[in-house]
Design goal:
The chain is an alpha+beta fold. Helices cover 39% and strands 12% of the residues. A hairpin with a 2-residue loop joins strand 1 and strand 2. The protein starts with a strand and ends with a strand.
Length: 207
Amino acid sequence: MVYSGMVKIGRNQLCPCGSGKKYKHCHGNPLNPQLLPAAQPVPPHVQAMFREMQAREKRREDAQGLGRPIISTDFKGYKFVAVGNNLNLHYSKNWVYFSDFLLDFIKNKLGAEWGNAEKEKPFDERHPLMQWLHLMGELHKKLREKSEGDMNTEANGFINCFFGLAYNLYLLDPMSDLDVGDPSHCMQVSRVAPDGPAPVNACVHHA
């Protein structure tokens, strides 16, 4: 029910404008094109802002893929990373890059008991995930012997596999009460050569 001056106009009554239409189909319709302001050209600075927003999103997708945006910040010496709504539960002084967070995230998700049990096995009998982790550790040692400070290396097969799985678990985590448990039951992964091909522009940073 709409009031016009002192007259009460019902939605199904004729519109007082004289069009012969019901009020709800005429001046009582908020989407009536006659009531909408005429379209105005978009100012150049707004167009530039929109193009820059699209370019930023394209750069993010090139770097992170089509998953949800990574939300992280540095505060008082800590790096915080949002996982679902649990921002306050994921922080560390030891994280420099997002890959540092992923390394801790997948370890915590799989559990120390399973990881330690896998380490006790001969290398060839370990779960592929633990083989990748071992190879990453060996590569890190070699890089540390050859350089000082931060160490960068192009991502290879086992690095891509390890962080690809960790990133997928990170994306899936807020969608359900994900409890990985025994990874051999839920992760069908293939074995890859340690020096397998790396995707274009893939790079992993080691602090």
